Amino acid sequence: MTAGMAADLAFGDPRRGHPVAVFGSAVAASENRLYRDSRAAGTGFTALWVSAAVLAGGLAGRAGPVGTAVATFSAVGGTTLCRVGDRIADALDDGDLDGARATLPSLVGRDPSSLDEAGICRAAVESIAENTSDATVAPLFWGALAGAPGLLGYRAVNTLDAMIGYRSSRYARFGWAAARTDDAANLVPARVTALLAGLLSGHPIRAVRAVRRDGGKHPSPNAGVVEAAFAGALGISLGGRTVYPHGVEDRPVLGDGPAPRAAELRAAVRLSRRVQIASGLLAVLAVVRVPSPRAESVPVRS
């Protein structure tokens, strides 16, 4: 797991042939044949692909440390997340609003065409906060619990949620199981992320206050907790009117303070990196096996 995390820190996501992209392409192709507008069909579809990912993780685990390292590198994606955040901040600092808008879809699914600097930064910070949990803390959490099957199984759950876990007319029923499974898989990791964000920002009381007051207002039981923690930790406010391809959502306001700008976006990136490194250390510590005194050899009487 340490080697896989180090590879992500050094290289980020490969531009071509990323295992998650290959998985997503296979899911999209099969959806065309298996889609039915029902929860039962969606549940079977989700179970099929999560099982396939867990099986692939089992095969990777049998390959030993190299297999687990590859599974870790495939499952985590925090470095690319932060690099995109920095590119958006760079464009805004250079006055290149169109360049920032063009980069934003790498992070979020909303329409950037009408967003000003504050709207772009708000969207980017919200995505960085949520994906700090989804792209690093959560896969490492499940990797610490279940090894390579946990890593790839979680990544499958999260990818399915990103693809079909919407409340649109097409996916309200078919994507229901994917969305609910993702909610369950992220329940603990999101709160670990929020805790680390508060502690590592130097403003834990502000973060806790924002989570307790605002975290439950968000439509997602996990994204709201993480976004509120980042908002409180950074002294900004998030939320508001959000335009998606499937419609417009009025999100509740999270945190206190002004809307984020490029400086706050950079601060969110720095906080995300600290949380990712800390979660990697915690995951490795969680799987270290300390020899028990009872396991030591006992002299045999002659």
TrEMBL record:
Location in or out of the cell: Cell membrane
Pfam families hit by this protein: CobD_Cbib
The metabolic or biological pathway listed in the UniProt record of this protein is: Cofactor biosynthesis; adenosylcobalamin biosynthesis
Q: Does the keyword Membrane apply?
A: yes
Which keywords does the record carry?
Cell membrane, Cobalamin biosynthesis, Membrane, Transmembrane, Transmembrane helix
Entry annotated with the keyword Lipid biosynthesis: no
Membrane topology is: Multi-pass membrane protein
**Which HAMAP family does this entry report, sorted A to Z?**
CobD_CbiB
Q: Which family does it belong to?
A: Belongs to the CobD/CbiB family.
Q: What PANTHER family does UniProt report for this protein, alphabetically? A: COBALAMIN BIOSYNTHESIS PROTEIN CBIB (PTHR34308)
Primary role: Converts cobyric acid to cobinamide by the addition of aminopropanol on the F carboxylic group.
Name this protein carries in UniProt: Cobalamin biosynthesis protein CobD
UniProt source species: Gordonia caeni
Q: Name the gene for this chain.
A: cobD
